[in-house]
Write a structure and sequence with these properties.
Shape: globular
Distance between the termini: 33 Å
Largest sheet: 8 strands, mixed
Strand content: 25-35%
Strand order of the largest sheet: 4-3-5-6-7-8-9-10
Helix content: 25-40%
CATH topology of the largest domain: Fructose-1,6-Bisphosphatase, Chain A, domain 1
CATH superfamily of the largest domain: Fructose-1,6-Bisphosphatase, subunit A, domain 1
């Protein structure tokens, strides 16, 4: 895929994210629209998730009818082995459903074992993150870079968690990170956890198992921003999920230890 092809896809993805984000923000402000159910333990779903994904899929089909699409809500269409859009219509649905302003729209494109472009839009704060392979990462059109934090003793690390893995594993991760001298966070959106690293708001994000739609866009943005990114797609990460680590370069040598600890398979699928 040429730089021109990527630029075209990036522009379309940004336009779709902005439009979908505008709709989602209107719904977020309406408590009735935020009514939710559960797909599984701590796995929230609202009608807005499905509608946002349908709108994005329709826009991608109009511009790139031959492209495969993987979405959190509606699964896979097309041949993803040739490259695929990877969509999370609302990342941070639990926050969205409870009225907390920490959620976003995520649209990435994966080619082979690489996330080659990403768009993340946070409608509440009107923040649009973008990047494509070979280009720079931007926030509202201004360049961003990962932090220059020198080591873990000065770091802020977000640790994602989900009930597919047990309490013991999460406590192990927290104990290690705190032992290395870092402060820890958990803010409820894996995608925004990655973009926080890309723009220097935090120094790392780690989760033992996460789905591709939560990270595809963020990985492309973090890589372009100069952060370390773990090889999420080298196995079956696109379809089965994987562990993920993104980190400011100064913290990566130490935090890579977490990748060795986290190789166990999740206990259940959604």
């Amino acid at each position: 895929m040429t730089p021109s092809d990527l630029d075209q896809r990036l522009a379309v993805a940004a336009s779709l994210a902005l439009a979908a984000g505008g709709y989602a923000l209107e719904q977020f402000r309406d408590p009735e629209a935020r009514q939710h159910k559960f797909k599984g333990p701590q796995d929230y779903l609202t009608a807005v998730d499905g509608e946002v994904e349908r709108r994005i899929r329709a826009g991608l089909a109009e511009s790139f009818p031959d492209d495969a699409v993987i979405g959190e809500e509606d699964g896979t269409t097309g041949d993803a082995s040739l490259g695929a859009w990877v969509i999370d219509p609302i990342d941070g649905t639990a926050n969205f459903a409870r009225g907390l302003a920490r959620w976003c729209i995520s649209i990435g494109y994966v080619l082979g074992r690489d996330a080659v472009l990403g768009v993340v839009y946070d409608p509440v704060h009107d923040e649009l993150f973008q990047a494509r392979r070979g280009g720079e990462a931007t926030l509202n059109s201004k360049p961003i870079r990962a932090a220059s934090t020198p080591d873990t003793k000065h770091g802020i690390v977000e640790l994602g968690w989900n009930p597919r893995l047990g309490l013991e594993e999460h406590v192990t991760d927290m104990t290690m990170v705190i032992g290395w001298g870092s402060a820890i966070r958990r803010l409820g959106s894996g995608t925004l956890g990655l973009t926080d690293v890309a723009c220097g708001r935090s120094d790392a994000y780690y989760q033992r198992h996460i789905w591709s739609w939560d990270v595809a866009a963020g990985l492309a943005i973090c890589e372009a921003a100069g952060a370390y990114i773990s090889p999420f797609f080298e196995t079956d990460g696109l379809t089965k999920g994987n562990q993920v680590l993104v980190a400011a370069p100064g913290l990566a040598p130490t935090l890579k230890t977490l990748l060795t600890l986290g190789r166990a398979e999740p206990k259940a699928s959604p």
